[in-house]
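FAQ

Q: What does a record look like?
A: Structure on top, sequence underneath. For example:
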C-alpha cells in the first residue's frame, strides 16, 4: 500500500518573475488556494498521508502554510472567513509533513534522490505541483494508485501533446497493453519532433518503486548535465517494469503563464458564482 508522496519544490520559478523573487512558485494561488495545497489534497484523495517536500532556499512559506497560524486564527475566529481555513486545517490534521533541502539544482532525478530519506524502502508517489490536474470523481493519483495495486511496477502519467512540443517533455514509446496503458520500452528526455518516437508526454505524476533510488545513484548525468528521472525509468523499462497511463482528466501547465491563467479561469468558473468572493458550498 502506497502511503508516501514526494513533492520536489526547490525550483526558482523564473517564468513568473518578479512574483517568485521572494515567494515559492508552488504558493502561487489558483483563485484563493496555492498550487501546493491542491497537490496535497490530490495525494490525500488517494490515501497518501505522509507528505515529503524537497525544498530549497527561500521556500519557508511552504512549511508555514502547512502549519497552524494561531494569531490569524484568533483574529478570524467566529467570523465567516473562518470557513476558508477548513480545507487546510483538514490537511494538517490528516497528513504528516517532512522536509529536506536540495542544495544544488541538478535535475528532477536528483531532487527525487534527495528525498530518499523521507521515503525509505517502499513505493511512493511524486507530484509536480505546477502540473495542475483536475478530474472527478477519482483524481489522477487515485487512478494511478489503483493501477499500481494491480501491476506493482512504476507508473507514469502521460498525455498526447502536439508533435511540435515534444522537445519540452519526456516522451515514451512502447506496446499497448490496454485502452489506456502502454508498457514502456523507451523514454527519451525532450526529443526534437523530427526524432520523437511518439507524442505521448510524461506529466508531473509518477508512482515509483523503491529500486529507483539505486538506479539514480548509478546513472551518469544526462541532458543538460542533470540527473534525469527519465534515464532512471529507462533502466526499469528494460525489465518491463514501467507503465505509461493515459489518465482521465485535464491537465494545466501552471509552470507557464498561459496555463496558470487557464487553470485559474477554470476553477473560478467551476466553483465560484460570478461576482461572489467565496466558493460555492
Amino acid at each position: 500500500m502506497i502511503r508516501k508522496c514526494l513533492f520536489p519544490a526547490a525550483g526558482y520559478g523564473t517564468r513568473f518573475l518578479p512574483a517568485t523573487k521572494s515567494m515559492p512558485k508552488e504558493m502561487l494561488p489558483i483563485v484563493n488556494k496555492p498550487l501546493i495545497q491542491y497537490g496535497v489534497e490530490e495525494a490525500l484523495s488517494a490515501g497518501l498521508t505522509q507528505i515529503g517536500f524537497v525544498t530549497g532556499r527561500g521556500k519557508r512559506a511552504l512549511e508555514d502554510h502547512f502549519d497552524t497560524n494561531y494569531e490569524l486564527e484568533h483574529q478570524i475566529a467566529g467570523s465567516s472567513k473562518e470557513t476558508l481555513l477548513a480545507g487546510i486545517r483538514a490537511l494538517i490534521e490528516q497528513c504528516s509533513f517532512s522536509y529536506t533541502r536540495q542544495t544544488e539544482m541538478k535535475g528532477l532525478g536528483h531532487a527525487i534522490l534527495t528525498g530518499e530519506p523521507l521515503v525509505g524502502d517502499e513505493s511512493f508517489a511524486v507530484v509536480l505541483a505546477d502540473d495542475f490536474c483536475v478530474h472527478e470523481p477519482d483524481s489522477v493519483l487515485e487512478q494511478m494508485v489503483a493501477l499500481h495495486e494491480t501491476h506493482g511496477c512504476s507508473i507514469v502519467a502521460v498525455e498526447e501533446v502536439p508533435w511540435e512540443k515534444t522537445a519540452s517533455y519526456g516522451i515514451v514509446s512502447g506496446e499497448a497493453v490496454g485502452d489506456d496503458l502502454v508498457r514502456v520500452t523507451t523514454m527519451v528526455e525532450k526529443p526534437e519532433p523530427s526524432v520523437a518516437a511518439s507524442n505521448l508526454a510524461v506529466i508531473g505524476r509518477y508512482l515509483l518503486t523503491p529500486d529507483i533510488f539505486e538506479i539514480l545513484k548509478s546513472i551518469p548525468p544526462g541532458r543538460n548535465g542533470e540527473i534525469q528521472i527519465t534515464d532512471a525509468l529507462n533502466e526499469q523499462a528494460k525489465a518491463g517494469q514501467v507503465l505509461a497511463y493515459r489518465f482521465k482528466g485535464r491537465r494545466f501547465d501552471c509552470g507557464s503563464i498561459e496555463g496558470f491563467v487557464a487553470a485559474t479561469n477554470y476553477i473560478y468558473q467551476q466553483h465560484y458564482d460570478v461576482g461572489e468572493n467565496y466558493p460555492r458550498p
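Q: Is there anything notable about this one?
A: The CA atoms of residues 26 and 36 lie 5 Å apart.
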